[in-house]
Amino acid sequence: MKRVYIYEGFERFWHWTQAILIIFLAFTGFEVHGSYSFFGYENAVVYHRIAGWTLVGLYVFAAFWHFATGEVKQYIPTFKFMKAQLDYYIFGIFRNAPHPVKKNRLSKLNPLQKITYFSLMVIIIPLMMITGLLYYYYRVPQATTVNPLNISNLHVISFWHVLGAYFLVMFLIGHLYLITTGHTVLTNLKAMITGWEDIEEEEGEEETSNQENNKENN
Ligand code: HEM
Cα separations (Å) of 157 from 144, 165, 174, 208? Predict the structure, then answer.
């Protein structure tokens, strides 16, 4: 095993702030939706709006950081090793097979993570922000229609916002399972807290895996 520094301070800050905000948005959002009562409808609306705006701000900041540092390249989807990764999650993981894609500082995401996070950042989160803001401005100030946007029915906005919310909840459940699939159940969680991860490195493999990962990033 080799100890490698994988996640920088900002990435960990971004990850955990985002996690807390999305869980809180889901919790308050489904209260606004009428699924249960916890804070009370009026409070849930206020909290949801504050958290929504905070998430928008966080993404603006994170987008700037990812472009400025070039870390945005980590998320560009690739099909290389995709089958190997799928085979691992379906079969290999239950037979104690080694992880097909080795992590390093320059390539920390496997192909399934890349495509999932890319879709979240390019489709689902923007969908939530756009529909969330449309929702917000549709109602404020007490308009009965939104003529300039030509949206006459709040249900259209609500449908897409709630659909995105279901996707995010499903993602969270899958994500919680997948974080337990590192070298030990807590390896991935610890890495996202401390930045450091113990990575399996077999004899003679280091060179090859680093070269492959570097090639992929170029
Ligand atoms: C990204 C920024 C977001 C903004 C600006 C936003 C904004 C809003 C607004 C304005 C409403 C209408 C309630 C109200 O009057 O305040 C709403 C409802 C709702 N939001 Fe969000 N939201 C965001 C993200 C999310 C996320 C991430 C989730 C879930 C994971 C979520 C789940 C919901 C749900 C379930 C409703 C109820 C919709 C309905 O029943 O029609 N929202 N949101």
Answer: 14, 12, 26, 49
